[in-house]
Amino acid sequence: MGQGKVVVRYDREHDILYIDVRPSARAAETVEAADDLLIDLDEEGNVIGIELWRASEYLAEPLSSALVERVRRALAD
Length: 77
Hints:
- The protein has about 80 residues and is of the alpha+beta class.
- The protein has one domain: Enolase-like, domain 1.
- Helices cover about 30% and strands about 35% of the residues.
- The protein has 1 helix and 5 strands; from the N terminus they run βββββα.
- A 5-stranded antiparallel beta sheet has the order 1-2-5-4-3, covered by helices on one side.
- A hairpin with a 2-residue loop joins strand 3 and strand 4 (about 35-40).
């Protein structure tokens, strides 16, 4: 697998998080791994990109809820 930087982009208008594992590679196939989760594969089946739709629902809300809970527990101690 070639070395390079992973590029993460967020489309605020459409609430889509893009993770380009190999930004210079071209997708040969896109697989729907789960609802709102698409995986781009190269010709050899290697993951080159991940697309998460409704990203704020899956990432921001759970992270903020977990943070709030940790703060509550810390204040209760």
